[in-house]
Write a structure and sequence with these properties.
Elements: E1 11-13, E2 23-30, E3 35-45, E4 51-62, E5 67-68
Antiparallel strand pairs: 1-2, 1-5, 2-3, 3-4
Length: 69
Amino acid sequence: MGFRAYGPGDVVVFPKGPLNGICAVVREVDSHRSKLRLDFREGIVHHEGNVLRERRHTVTVGFDEIELM
């Protein structure tokens, strides 16, 4: 796997593991440690698009744990 240039605002996906298929947004990049700070949300959405309930999550992951969408 080669180096990828990630930047704030990029959308990434977890290709495997417990968060398989989850999309997240890059908030911070630490290229020296090869780590990313990601934000993602989960919730129940009303059929008209209104969010009824939402939980926000922030995680730090390695470059090798995610893929750029």
